[in-house]
Design brief:
The structure holds two protein chains of two kinds.
Chain A (H helix, E strand, L loop, with lengths): L1 H27 L6 H21 L5 H25 L3 H24 L20 H20 L6 H10 L1 H28 L4
Helix pairs in contact in A: 1-2, 1-5, 2-7, 3-4, 5-7, 6-7
Chain B lengths: L10 H24 L8 H18 L9 H21 L6 H32 L10 H19 L4 H4 L1 H17 L6
Classes of the chains: A mainly alpha, B mainly alpha.
Chain lengths: ~200, ~190
């Protein structure tokens, strides 16, 4: 199916304007600690990390295999432990329940670790200016949305079905999160530009 | 006591309930924006900011706002009831490590199968479902959220713990974003 193969190229085309916009904001904004600028940079970095996560995603079979192996190890270990302590089925189930809670906790810790995004350092050539950044990001967003809609499939282009598809399909869910972060970044930048366009007394 | 009572339960469960409601409204508005049904890329972004601040506040209570999704819960129940329990009852000597391991692996695969089938069924059913009005346009959503956040901030401010008192500041930011989402502050263009 062509859309599935086209997704990395689409996402690359979305990530390039995001990186350019980030560079532009870092170069042009005077105060990087200003609230709107800081928020916009954070959202842009998070959106980029989200899209990179879509690209780096493992095939769907690998998590299934990992879960199978971990479950087998936990249950076999607890059954052996129950047999060694002289308990029956109930003891084995209790041990495996406790061990799986530990395993779930460890998995959560491992998943939460390491979501750091690295954006490229700004080049020296002059850019188009801060006021152009929201437009460029909005164009990037249009591409992102069309990639998401293509991923969802034509049959799901009504709001209720699209909502279910977003919660059901992990890739589409990540695209939706990236789109949300991108919209937040655009909103923050626009409010910053609105603030500096007024001449406060 | 009704379920929507803003003073029911501790702060963290109230925040989780509100976050679930806002998540539904945000996703719905985003879908409507994607399908150009109700094009508005500002409103759902700001509701997302509210959810982020609620998550910050919940993190100070050492809990998250995200619960397990319903599809996963029903898939787990189905796998345990339809595969795990019958196998445990039917297989002779289920306490032996090899047999118990096989049963557990069968349960896990059945869980993945049921989850995929349930997701597909939900999408299939939603294709024919009638469209409801968008919850982001509901003024009572904002009123409810504001009341809940204010009561949570009041209890956070009165908390003994220094760390949890910090949640009140996050909830103030959440109120700001909520007002911005509702009123659509002036923008550059």
């Amino acid at each position: 199916m062509p859309p599935a193969r086209a997704l990395p190229a689409e996402l690359g085309a979305v990530r390039a304007p995001i990186a350019d916009g980030f560079d532009e904001v870092v170069r042009e904004a005077g105060d990087l600690d200003q609230f709107w600028i800081r928020s916009a940079c954070g959202r842009l970095a998070a959106a980029d990390a989200e899209l990179a996560g879509v690209l780096r995603r493992r095939p769907a079979l690998i998590p299934v295999l990992i879960t199978t192996v971990v479950t087998a190890a936990v249950v076999a270990g607890s059954a052996t432990l129950a047999r060694a302590t002289g308990g029956g089925l109930l003891a084995a189930l209790t041990f495996s329940g406790l061990l799986s809670i530990v395993a779930l906790h460890l998995a959560g810790v491992l998943r939460r670790r390491g979501t750091v995004s690295a954006l490229p350092s700004p080049p020296d050539r002059p850019g188009p200016g801060l006021a152009e950044v929201p437009f460029a990001l909005e164009r990037a967003r249009v591409r992102l949305v069309s990639a998401g809609l293509r991923r969802a499939g034509q049959a799901n282009w009504r709001a209720p079905a699209l909502r279910q598809a977003m919660s059901g399909d992990p890739v589409l869910g990540r695209l939706a999160v990236a789109d949300l972060l991108l919209c937040q970044a655009i909103d923050c930048l626009e409010r910053y530009l609105d603030d500096i366009s007024k001449d406060w007394p | 006591m009704s379920r929507d009572d803003p003073f029911a339960g501790g702060v963290a469960p109230r925040l989780r309930r509100l976050d679930r409601e806002l998540a539904a409204a945000t996703t719905d508005a985003q879908c409507r924006d994607w399908t150009a049904d109700r094009p508005d890329r500002i409103g759902f972004a700001r509701l997302g900011q509210v959810r982020r601040e609620l998550g910050n506040a919940a993190a100070r209570y050492r809990t998250g706002t995200t619960g397990p999704d319903r599809t996963m819960i029903s898939a787990v129940l189905l796998a345990v009831l339809l595969v795990g329990v019958p196998l445990l009852l039917l297989v002779p000597g289920p306490a032996q490590p090899a047999r118990l391991t096989a049963i557990a692996v069968a349960c896990v695969w059945a869980l993945y199968l049921f989850r995929a089938v349930l997701r597909r069924l939900r999408i299939r059913r939603a294709r024919k479902a009638p469209d409801r009005p968008a919850p982001i346009d509901d003024p009572f959503l904002y009123a409810r959220a504001r009341r809940t956040i204010e009561s949570c901030a009041a209890s956070a401010r009165a908390d003994r713990s220094y760390r949890r008192r910090g949640a009140a500041a996050d909830l103030e930011y959440a109120l700001d974003w909520l007002a911005a989402a509702q009123e659509e502050l002036p923008r550059a263009r």
